[in-house]
Design brief:
Elements (H helix, E strand, L loop, with lengths): L4 H34 L3 H25 L9 H20 L5
Helix pairs in contact: 1-2, 1-3, 2-3
C-alpha cells in the first residue's frame, strides 16, 4: 500500500532539513577547528576547539538518530559529502588533541 502524499512530503521536507542541518554544523565545526589551530590566544583556542567538538558531536548524534539500522534519509551523494566532511573534522579535532 502506498503512503499518503502528505506523509511523503513531510518526510522529504525532514530529509532536506536534516541535510541542511548537517552541512551547517560541519561547516561551523571545520571553521572553529581552523580558528583553534591558528589562534595565538589559549582561551580562544580552547573555546573554538570546544565549539568544534560540539558540532562534531551534534552531527554524529543526528546521524545516529536519523539512520535507524541501515536506512539513511540522505541520498548516497549527500551521505558521502557529509561523511567526507565529518572525517575531515575528526582529523582536525585529533590534531588539536581531542580524544575521539
Amino acid at each position: 500500500m502506498a503512503e499518503p502524499a502528505i506523509y511523503v512530503g513531510k518526510q522529504s521536507s525532514f530529509n532536506g532539513a536534516l541535510y541542511q542541518f548537517l552541512k551547517v554544523e560541519l561547516r561551523l565545526g571545520l571553521t572553529r577547528a581552523s580558528i583553534a589551530n591558528t589562534s595565538y590566544f589559549v582561551h580562544r583556542r580552547f573555546r573554538n576547539q570546544a565549539d568544534a567538538r560540539k558540532a562534531y558531536d551534534a552531527v554524529v548524534h543526528a546521524l545516529g538518530r536519523a539512520c535507524n539500522g541501515n536506512q539513511s534519509p540522505l541520498t548516497v551523494e549527500q551521505f558521502d559529502e557529509v561523511q567526507g566532511k565529518l572525517t575531515k573534522l575528526r582529523q582536525e579535532l585529533q590534531k588539536l588533541g581531542e580524544p575521539i
